[in-house]
Design a protein that fits this description.
This protein has two domains: about 150 residues, Double Clp-N motif (Orthogonal Bundle), CATH 1.10.1780; about 160 residues, Alpha-D-Glucose-1,6-Bisphosphate, Chain A, domain 4. It has twelve helices and ten strands. About 5% of the residues have low confidence.
């Protein structure tokens, strides 16, 4: 992946995960601690290094809570801290980074790689002192993190490296780390009734509970009609109904479907395949999405229209994978 694409994908992934963390506290501004939490969740070298020294999302959340409470105590402020709520970033608007968090992200770009490792290294040298304080509450240090980065960089490159090209030239691929056991992720994905929990285009599913879940079975699904806040969703009638056909189910690590629109047969069908691999601290989810090939796809492969479609497919797939991760956070 080019440096520009790496930086763009990294910025998108870290911003989404970081703002999701901020939204749990009713905040619309993400700061350094939210960016650090996003790095712990990241599937690139930086995230793997942080997890090898025992850092986890729950640990960072707890350390952040204790750090903020200590700051308030030093100021002589006693207050009841509100319990974090569920993530609602995907349901709200108006998020931004603090200036110091933006400085970190900017420093990671430019002449640097723009990947998660560059962001983490820039975060470790951020001058406010917040990161040193947070790391102390995590019983570690900036030097320990740098040592872990060097050790991880010396390891053979794993299959996962964020967003990469799909083996299918017509498709896209997104890989993420999910902070949950692979068995739990499989249970979520293999249950048709739980599709609305992670697939943003599905509002409800008609499931025959007596039917065996085997390749070839088709589920009728409907698009969401309302946002979680009650706002109606405008959906064209031809896109209201979907059909999800199960193509592959290989417990406990691979499942795929074909999605089509019975009321709009000209619309290309989408094949979504997800592979789950257990890793330290959770599991790696590798998702690929591709449209059914048309007779002229080779001639259109590099056309502007096709490149735009691939970008839209990537956006859609990042929303799907984010939904899977969010279900466990």
């Amino acid at each position: 992946m080019s440096t520009f694409r790496t930086a763009a994908a990294t910025m998108q992934q870290l911003s989404q995960a970081g703002m999701e963390e901020a939204s749990r506290h009713g905040l619309r501004v993400g700061d350094l601690e939210h960016l650090f939490a996003a790095l712990v969740l990241n599937d690139q070298l930086a995230g793997r290094a942080l997890r090898t020294i025992g850092l986890s999302l729950e640990g960072v959340r707890d350390a952040t809570h204790r750090m903020n409470a200590a700051h308030l105590q030093r100021l002589g402020v006693t207050t009841m801290t509100a319990e974090p709520q569920r993530i609602n970033f995907h349901e709200t608007r108006g998020y931004e980074w603090t200036p110091r968090a933006m400085d970190v992200l900017t420093a990671a770009g430019g002449k640097n790689a723009g990947d998660a490792e560059a962001v983490l290294r820039a975060l470790l040298t951020e001058p406010s002192g917040l990161m040193n304080d947070l790391l102390a509450h995590l019983d570690t240090s900036a030097d320990a993190v740098r040592t872990a980065l060097a050790a991880e960089a010396a390891q053979p490159t794993p299959l996962s490296n964020g967003t990469r090209k799909s083996p299918d030239k017509r498709g896209v691929l997104v890989e993420i780390f999910v902070p949950a056991p692979s068995a739990a992720v499989w249970t979520l994905l293999a249950d048709p009734a739980r599709l609305p929990e992670w697939h943003y285009l599905i509002g409800s599913v008609e499931v025959d509970t007596a039917a065996e879940i085997v390749p070839g079975v088709i589920w009728a699904v409907l698009a969401p009609t309302h946002q979680p806040d009650g706002t109606p969703v405008r959906v064209k009638e031809r896109f209201r109904r979907h059909q999800m056909q199960l193509l592959v189910i290989e417990q406990p690590n691979r499942i795929s479907w074909r999605s089509s629109y019975p009321d709009f047969p000209r619309r290309r069908a989408i094949e979504l395949s997800i592979q789950i691999t257990a890793v330290a601290g959770g599991c790696q989810v590798r998702a690929t999405s591709s449209g059914t090939a048309g007779p002229t796809w080779k001639t259109l492969l590099f056309s502007p229209l096709c490149l735009l479609q691939r970008f839209l497919d990537w956006i859609s797939l990042t929303q799907i994978t984010a939904g899977i991760s969010r279900a466990f956070r």
